[in-house]
Automatic annotation (TrEMBL):
EC number(s) recorded for this UniProt protein: 3.1.6.1
UniProt xrefs under PANTHER family: ARYLSULFATASE FAMILY MEMBER (PTHR42693), ENDO-4-O-SULFATASE (PTHR42693:SF53)
Superkingdom field: Bacteria
InterPro entries: Alkaline_phosphatase_core_sf, Sulfatase, Sulfatase_N
Family membership noted in the UniProt record: Belongs to the sulfatase family.
Gene3D superfamilies in the record: Alkaline Phosphatase, subunit A, Galactose-binding domain-like
Pfam families: Sulfatase
An example molecular function term from Gene Ontology annotations: arylsulfatase activity
Organism name: Novipirellula artificiosorum
Residues making up the signal peptide according to the UniProt record: 1-22
Record keywords: Hydrolase, Signal
Ranges of residues in domain Sulfatase N-terminal: 30-337
Taxonomic lineage: Bacteria, Pseudomonadati, Planctomycetota, Planctomycetia, Pirellulales
SUPFAM superfamilies in alphabetical order: Alkaline phosphatase-like
Official protein name in the record: Arylsulfatase
């Protein structure tokens, strides 16, 4: 009897332990890895029928998980990122475009990183942010413990460029996408013992079309079998470079997946893959109309693959329309996180579809807006921004307007589009003209992107995102930034400059109202532009070089909105300086 009693007690103890282990396993939340590519169209993957390239690692996510057949994002980069981060249509969030302050996500928005961090996750982002540079809009203030990348809309050079690591200027190592992936892998390794949310927003195949030789060799003289529906519009050099960049992305996706396997985290990790808009050039895209920047099907449809072994059925194909706005509520649901967001979401959780928990799904509309233009997608139709109606299932190329055949549908969608346009335009108006934050963190960078040149001063590139100011040839010319100072105090001002020989001796002044600091440019610093030999297209408009810090002094800034002006008091040569950015560092002994 004694032995029997001991056996029963031991068995009960074992059951308790097993029950606790099962409860712990059930309570353990999955890791999440989100990979977002930049300017990769729906057709830039072999799984979607493009035989010009091979993307086996990305394709495996669809084979081993679910693919959303009709997944939609925005027409350009920053809006899609804002919708992913918040679950809300981007105009509501303060974002209105991609440059000159248009890509700033309002500080009061709750991000997906905030949601996962509050649930105990380690959070990291590695790559192109494009939703704000200055605190409180920097990734480290938006829920990410770790950040490595660049916060601008695009970057001008892809080999060991200047980057941002948790708000500190650093230099990258090697090809930029490989570098971002390496940091993401390090983050996964460092946090393997706890749930982690890893956001890997890559910046290719966005231009400049720079890619390592090892990936480009295959394509440089390739005779491409799959072409754009209007081949005369296709730039083959651009296509070849984009395809090489997509194969590099695939290689890096393979590195991430291999890391998860080696750490035994495959079954515990949700992996999501999508792109931020349509292709950035005319190339094969299954005959869909439009590319990046367009509100047509080809400009908005993105691949979306999501893998979670033993939870999401391998090879599942989900036909229901969905969008970037759905990812925040979906991932929170899959991770069993209660959403506590004080702003209404536009997205809906796709968990029932992904976990095969429903056979019915309510009809819905997805809206895409660009200033006063709106396009609407239902399960069957697309109303384009001109009011034409297309039966997308039968006509993905949007060749035949069926408005007269389906007048009720056309009328209803036009009415909905008009209402959405009015609502979104009110948001655009509300948030336009905002000054740039200063003093909401210990240090603030104001890049040339956010400044306004006056006189003969010019930008180095047509696109402001990664430009610098040049051609400062008149002492009366200046640059200004509208700013909102969040904390009164003394600020050290630093300008990042270059100066050609013969122009040293000029005195540069930074001022706000009657307060100013100035310094003489004593040192010539005139480095060459970065090597562009890996640029695979002609007539590149990207120009990058190193800049040197010039401390200007310490001055006092009062709280509130004002204008920061960079000017000159004296000029000794044929010009002054080229300007990359201004740093304003709050002194710790300030009031």
């Amino acid at each position: 009897m004694k032995h029997a009693t001991q056996w029963i007690l031991s068995s009960l103890a074992a059951l308790v332990v097993l029950g606790a282990m099962a409860e712990s396993a059930a309570a353990r939340r999955p890791n999440v890895v989100v990979i977002l590519t930049d300017d990769q169209g729906w057709g830039d993957l072999s799984i979607n029928g493009n035989t010009n390239l091979s993307t086996p690692h990305v394709d495996s996510l669809a084979a081993e998980g679910a693919r959303l057949e009709h997944f939609y994002v925005c027409q350009v980069c920053a809006p899609t990122r804002a919708e992913f981060l918040t679950g809300r249509y981007y105009p509501r969030t303060g974002v209105s475009g991609v440059s000159r302050g248009e890509g700033r996500l309002n500080a009061e928005e709750t991000t997906i990183a905030d949601v996962f961090k509050s649930a105990g996750y380690a959070t990291g982002a590695f790559g192109k942010w494009h939703n704000g540079t200055q605190p409180p809009l920097h990734p480290n203030q938006r829920g990410f413990d770790e950040y490595y990348g660049f916060t601008s809309g695009h970057w001008g050079h892809y080999f060991s460029p200047p980057l941002d690591h948790n708000g500190t200027r650093v230099r990258g190592r090697g090809f930029i996408v490989d570098d971002f992936t390496e940091h993401a892998i390090d983050f996964i390794n460092d946090n393997q013992q706890q749930p982690f949310f890893c956001y890997l927003p890559l910046n290719t195949p966005h231009s400049p079309m720079m890619v390592p030789d090892a990936f480009y060799e295959k394509f440089k003289d390739a005779d491409l079998a799959m072409r754009h529906r209007d081949p005369d519009r296709e730039d083959l050099m651009m296509t070849r470079a984009a395809l090489a960049m997509c194969e590099n992305i695939d290689w890096n996706v393979g590195r991430v997946l291999k890391t998860l396997d080696e750490l035994g985290l495959r079954e515990e990790t949700i992996v999501v893959y999508f792109s931020d808009n349509g292709p950035n050039s005319y190339r094969w895209n299954q005959g869909m109309k439009g590319k990046k920047g367009s509100l047509d099907e080809g400009g908005l449809r993105s691949p979306l693959f999501i893998r979670w072994p033993d939870h999401i059925r391998a090879g599942a194909s989900i036909p229901q329309i969905a969008g970037a706005i759905d990812l925040l509520p979906t991932l929170a649901d899959l991770a069993n996180i209660d959403l506590k967001i004080d702003k209404p979401l536009d997205g809906t959780s796709l968990q029932p579809l992904l976990l095969n928990e429903t056979t019915t799904w309510p009809s819905r509309m997805l809206f895409a807006a660009k200033k006063k233009e709106v396009s609407v997608r239902t399960q069957r139709f697309r109303l384009d921004s001109t009011g034409k109606l297309f039966d997308i299932d039968k006509d993905p190329g949007q060749h035949v307007d069926v408005s007269e055949e389906y007048p009720k549908a056309a009328s209803e969608l036009r009415r909905k589009a008009q209402l959405h346009a009015e609502e979104m335009n009110a948001c655009f108006d509300k948030f336009s003209g905002r000054p740039f934050h200063v003093g909401y963190g210990p240090s603030t960078t104001l890049p040339a992107r956010d400044g306004e040149p006056h006189g003969a001063i010019q930008r180095s590139a047509k696109a402001p995102n990664n430009s610098f100011f040049k051609n400062w040839t008149n002492v009366d010319d200046y640059i200004h930034w509208p700013i909102d100072v969040g904390q009164q105090g003394d600020y050290e001002a630093i300008v990042y400059y270059t100066c050609a020989a013969g122009n040293e001796g000029a005195r540069i002044t930074l001022s706000v109202a009657e307060v100013s600091v100035s310094q003489i440019v004593h040192e010539v610093f005139d480095p060459p532009l970065y090597d562009k030999s890996k640029e695979r297209v002609e007539n590149s408009h990207y120009f990058v070089k190193d800049f040197k810090p010039l401390p200007l002094g310490v001055f006092h800034l009062n709280k509130g909105s004002c204008e920061l002006r960079l000017g000159a008091e004296t000029m000794t040569g044929s010009g002054l300086i080229d300007v990359h950015s201004i740093d304003l560092i709050l002194r710790t002994d300030s009031d």
